[in-house]
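Protocol step 4 of 6.
Sequence for Protein LIM3-like (Dioscorea cayennensis subsp. rotundata) entered exactly as in the expression construct, tag removed. Do not edit the line below.
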Amino acid sequence: MAAVKIVLMILMVTLVMQSRLVFSQNCSANLGALTTCAAYVLPGGPQGPPSAECCGALRAVDRTCLCSTVDIINRIPRDCNLPVVTCV
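Step 5 output, structure tokens:
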């Protein structure tokens, strides 16, 4: 019975790791498509509405992917022993 529990535990861990890998790959691919929005997020970029391509790329990105990316971006200064960026 203990061997069955160990095998089940290994299968569960493998399943969780695989699902994270797939999410990471999909997230990275979708974020890569956002290069069409690059000009709109840089100072001095276009002030008007984003292009249809930018909007389509953003629409394709999962909200969890976007939020995870923002969390990572906000964590980087802290991990580099720099002050947290605050915008007013």
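Step 6, annotate. The mean pLDDT is 77.
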